Amino acid sequence: MNTMTTAVAVVGILSTAVIYGTDLFCALIVRPAAGGAADSSIADLIGRIHEYGDRRLPVPGVVSIIAAALAIALSDGTLARIAAATALVALLAWLAIYVRISAPINKRLRAAAADHTVPADTKELQQRWDGVIWLRTALQAIALVGLLAVIVTN
Asked: What is the rounded CA–CA span in Å between residue 136 and residue 27?
């Protein structure tokens, strides 16, 4: 067993779990709650949530990507490398969805909250954001399983 690979995988698991838990909470709780909320509530509260999330969550996100890449490089076995590569691909796919869809919406809602305004398309913005949250959650789950498999197969 490669101790360094195991340590890197554990760090990756912990950092991935932060994002997975956040996305799962959003999918299970925030998505349906926002669906029944007034536009002004969505613009204000969800905008403020994104203000904090977008500032604090990049650290575990970046750490998880680095950990998955390091696990590929450090793993002794083929199965462990495949598992780490699967995790890395899932994390990079998650990042692509976040950058392309979620981040621009977050930015608009953050600006609305800061300016105390309500965009005319608030519901549409939230629905578009909600439309990818289950996919984001699934990609984080795949990454978690991949990183766990690194430990099991290394």
From this structure: 9
- 41 neighbors 148 (Cβ within 8 angstroms): no
Question: Residue 154: which pLDDT band, with cuts at 50, 70 and 90?
Answer: confident
pLDDT in tens, 8-28: 999 999 999 999 999 999 999
pLDDT of residue 43 exceeding 80: yes
Amino acid in position 152: V
pLDDT at 1: 62
Domain chopping of the chain, boundaries: 3-153
Secondary structure (DSSP) of the chain: --HHHHHHHHHHHHHHHHHHHHHHHIIIIIHHHHHTS-HHHIIIIIHHHHHHHHHHTHHHHHHHHHHHHHHHHH-SSHHHHHHHHHHHHHHHHHHHHIIIIIHHHHHHHHHHHHHT---TTHHHHHHHHHHHHHHHHHHHHHHHHHHHHHHHH-
**This prediction's pTM:** 0.94
Spacing of C-alpha 95 from chain mean position: 7
Which tokens is 119 given?
Answer: 């965009």
